[in-house]
Amino acid sequence: MPPVINATLDPRIVRTRQLLREALVGLLEEKDFEVITVQDIADRATVNRATVYAHYQDKYDLLADAIRAAFLEVLDRWMVGRVVTEEGPRQMLLAVCDFVGGLETKCKDGPKNRMCEPFLEAQVKEVLRDLLVPWVAEIEKGGQAELKATLWSWSIYAAAWEWLYRVRPGSAEDFADGAIALIRGGLE
Q1: What are 9-23's pLDDT values in tens digits?
Q2: pTM of whole model > 0.90?
């Protein structure tokens, strides 16, 4: 995966990566990930293949980065400054429901695509875990902050998936209230 984009990164690098992510997302609306080639991505982004490889190892690396960047955008709508508070896990669950649910219209096969889903799951869980570790460490006295943050992230992702593809009896907000209470009870 490429290094994390930060304010000190050359704006040309930031723009090129954005073009490549947008190209991949546009192609995913039209065809399955398996048939998309690096050349297709390069053509759509109006760059050459060498440019793609200068920024990403392969199309899978680009997919992971595109998922992560898109999820962080959605997360920013739900969590001001990505600061985890007592309400944070609920906001995270709602963000995951929003993000994964939104992929239904953006990917040809939706988020359940057998090639894309593992990347989706891994990136979302990693982002959630990274945000949760400091919060859990602050409230956790037993020294197992990383383990608990991992369990929280997996539980939040699983709950969102459950609501999106099995349950959906009511609003995401109502579901989140109940699911977070169950997760919290199981992790205490």
Answers
A1: 789 999 999 999 999
A2: no
User: Phi and psi of 6, rounded to 5°?
Assistant: -135, 180
Which tokens belong to 177?
A: 């209230």
Give dist(CA 100, CA 90) in Å, integer: 15
Q: Which residue carries 């096969």 as its tokens?
A: 109
Query: Which three-class secondary structure state does DSSP give residue 31?
Result: coil
- Tokens (6 digits) for 150: 């991992």
Six token digits for residue 181: 């209470």
Helices and strands per DSSP (H, E), number in the chain: 8, 0
Domains of the chain: 59-187 (1.10.357)
Q: How confident is the model at residue 82 (pLDDT cuts 50, 70, 90)?
A: confident
Amino acid making up residue 17 = R
- Cα 40 to Cα 102: distance, rounded to the nearest angstrom: 24
Helix, strand or coil, per DSSP, at residue 108: coil
Average pLDDT value over all residues in the chain: 86
What's the rounded Cα separation, in Å, for the pair 70 and 111? 13
